[in-house]
## 1
Amino acid sequence: ETGVTQSPTHLIKTRGQQVTLRCSSQSGHNTVSWYQQALGQGPQFIFQYYREEENGRGNFPPRFSGLQFPNYSSELNVNALELDDSALYLCASSYRDGGQETQYFGPGTRLLVL
Amino acid sequence: AQTVTQSQPEMSVQEAETVTLSCTYDTSESDYYLFWYKQPPSRQMILVIRQEAYKQQNATENRFSVNFQKAAKSFSLKISDSQLGDAAMYFCAYRRLRSGSARQLTFGSGTQLTVLP
């Protein structure tokens, strides 16, 4: 039990729709990272937020966007959904303290795009 | 760019025996962190063990230990006295140390561990 929660647990959308996934960070954490995990693969970094600002981005198009709120919870938004967006979306929270920063993961949201 | 390679897609071990999972990585940096995460069928990624590259001593956490060979860029995980609950997908991950940049994890492709009763 990491204290990181995500909602919803499962979601089914159709191609072209938009989706919002939510993450609640572990208490005391100020950084949140989002990852996409396709079936049978390791997670791929989407982006990271630190104190409400995007602090780095992986190789994902602009239709993947995010927000971090003052309470450090976060949202991942995906516009114009494509079939390849079907995956497990993981968020991870951490406390940035200058070096030792371990990411703790939520249980994930399984997105299916039809 | 950093890459992490796990060359064993699947491994199996008898309950109470010892198993070693392999991981190699490629980086031009001298300071970084390495991690092993476990992902059971419940999907939640759980931290197993962490190693700081500047530390010579190999990390241990109860039945889990690592063999960190910095020059060879190798980071293997040893699980002793394997238990049925150890069955999961295991991911090796790398994170750069440098401040001011995103501290994202770079993952390998995973090793599916089966524990046989």
## 2
Amino acid sequence: AQKITQTQPGMFVQEKEAVTLDCTYDTSDPSYGLFWYKQPSSGEMIFLIYQGSYDQQNATEGRYSLNFQKARKSANLVISASQLGDSAMYFCAMRFGSARQLTFGSGTQLTVLP
Amino acid sequence: EPEVTQTPSHQVTQMGQEVILRCVPISNHLYFYWYRQILGQKVEFLVSFYNNEISEKSEIFDDQFSVERPDGSNFTLKIRSTKLEDSAMYFCASSEAHYEQYFGPGTRLTVT
């Protein structure tokens, strides 16, 4: 079965602290890709970061990093130095094999507290 | 910075009517997608399009749906006879040969 799971419906973090959003997946395909998207209350979907299954190093983009643990089948998003503008819904998504369609998790609503 | 655009931002239509949602993907991108998100739910894949044909589609994308790239810049999603359950946010996305998909701001479709 190919699926992606986000177990945290909501998370709170204090401004300037780091936060980890969990994402686990299940696939038997050796080739896959993992994505994180941010959806603010305005509704748009903002691409944050991508990790391929064969990438040797964990992906980083500014304050975002992906803690990719292949053996555990997890791809957690770490946001360092949280800002109030980081408050949003965060979706983990995955593509399987050579397919390009993305399968999304159920999302985590992050609230950054002042 | 180039971005995906979508029009209209909000469309209200009556059940049974046809709607066309429009998207302008990023200009050098090769792959185009439609996704939808019913209010409060996860984002669901509908269809992908490459080289002027559908490359993947989900079970949601039935005969009521069609996609077209009528010219070199636009990418459209047509719903022939809308149903109440088609009410959702519809996102267009595009990507280069690499896998990162960039989403447009979405069209909120309300079927009454």
